[in-house]
Amino acid sequence: MLTQSETRWSILPSPTMPNPSLLGMLAASFLAGQSSVEGIVARGEQLLGRSWPWLRPLAKRYVKAFAGRTRPRQRDAVQFLRDDPGFRQAWSKYLHELAVARWLTEPQQLQPVAAAAKWDLPPIESVGALAEWLALKIGELEWFADLKALG
């Protein structure tokens, strides 16, 4: 929604549609570590600067939605948040209070499956380490991963 002040136009936050930047950062925090309720809540609280009553139930719904599947892509996590009725309700209620308090800048950690513990491979804990082990540049690895779902 646009409003005109005396000297400029400004964009007011929508009470029904969450801010795309906040959605992206929240999704990134969900994806930045182990997909457990506790881990997601801790990263969400770190990102948002406080404990929110809706965050734990949201994390539970997220973990349930993606259980037994491969790690979701960023856009899938954003879509989950955008479509989640509980998050949309929290957004409407806390619209003017929700903001990124602390940017999470740590690299995304890979989450090995339990069966991989038996494999004769070095521990690979980041995208950079995987690219290095495969003798690829990160951009090449991203191309092979088809992050844009082009292929």
Describe the structure in your own words:
- It is built from seven helices and two strands, in the order E-E-H-H-H-H-H-H-H.
- The chain starts with a strand and ends in a 6-residue tail after the last helix.
- By secondary structure, the protein is mainly alpha-helical.
- Strands 1-2 form a two-stranded antiparallel ribbon.
- Helix 1 packs across helix 2 (37-48) and helix 1 (20-31) crosses helix 4.
- Mean pLDDT is 81; it is low at 1-13.
- Strand 1 and strand 2 (9-11) form a beta hairpin.
- The chain is elongated and about 50 Å long.
- It folds into two domains: 13-94, no CATH class; 114-145, no CATH class.
How many structural domains are formed by the residues?
2
Number of helices: 7
- How many β-strands, per DSSP? 2
Low-confidence stretches: 1-13
Structural class: mainly alpha
Helix amount: 40-55%
The radius of gyration over CA amounts to 18 Å
How are strands sequenced across the largest beta sheet?
Answer: 1-2
Average of per-residue pLDDT values: 81
Helix-strand pattern:
EEHHHHHHH
Beta fraction: under 5%
User: Shape from CA axes?
Assistant: elongated
Distance between the amino and carboxyl termini: 37 Å
Largest sheet: 2 strands, antiparallel
Summary?
The protein is mainly alpha-helical and 151 residues long.
Features:
151 residues, mainly alpha, 2 domains, two-stranded antiparallel ribbon, 7 helices, 2 strands
Secondary structure elements and pairings:
Blueprint: E1 2-4, E2 9-11, H1 20-31, H2 37-48, H3 55-66, H4 74-83, H5 85-94, H6 127-133, H7 138-145
Antiparallel strand pairs: 1-2
Helix pairs in contact: 1-2, 1-4, 2-3
